[in-house]
Design a protein that fits this description.
Layout (H helix, E strand, L loop, with lengths): L1 H20 L2 H23 L2 H28 L49 E6 L2 E6 L5 E5 L5
Antiparallel strand pairs: 1-2, 2-3
């Protein structure tokens, strides 16, 4: 019993540190995006058209860099995004943003851990849900799809 308790304590202590140490580049990219968003807001308030255009271009470049780094992370860690043995009691249907789902499509058994897959955090009543190879961000109160990532799982 003591050995099990010590092992659980060690795992609980080490796992968050390992998860945060895996993606410092992605964390820097997110900081760059926030900085570019601030620069864009400042340019819209106090700058001229050229300043706004340059700030938008910088923000677009920062987002592109973040996407590329995220794709590289996924490519290096393919096993985390493998399909696995996943079955659903309904047929595949390709969804898009704005569609309202039936509750069977977004029950708790289909929830995805956003931190594990480096997805943006879901806030409030929103949850990431797996639908075959796709990841859907769904408002669980209304069933409305907010965001879709097609082909998320390999």
């Amino acid at each position: 019993m003591r050995k099990t308790l010590l092992t659980a304590l060690l795992v609980a202590t080490v796992m968050p540190a390992m998860a945060s140490a895996q993606t410092p580049e992605l964390r820097r990219d997110r900081q760059d995006i926030r900085e570019q968003q601030r620069d864009l807001r400042d340019a819209q308030r106090y700058g001229d058209r050229r300043d706004v255009r340059d700030a938008r271009e910088d923000l677009r470049d920062a987002r592109r860099e973040h996407r590329e780094d995220w794709r590289d992370y996924r490519a290096k860690n393919r096993s985390a995004y493998s399909r696995g043995n996943w079955r659903a009691p309904f047929a595949y249907q390709r969804f898009h943003e704005g569609v309202v789902l039936r509750p069977t499509y977004y029950s708790s058994r289909y929830y995805i851990d956003a931190g594990r897959y480096r997805l943006p955090a879901a806030s409030g009543p929103n949850r990431w849900v797996r639908h075959y190879d796709d990841a859907l961000l769904v408002n669980v109160r209304t069933g409305r799809v907010i965001r879709v990532i097609n082909g998320f799982y390999w």
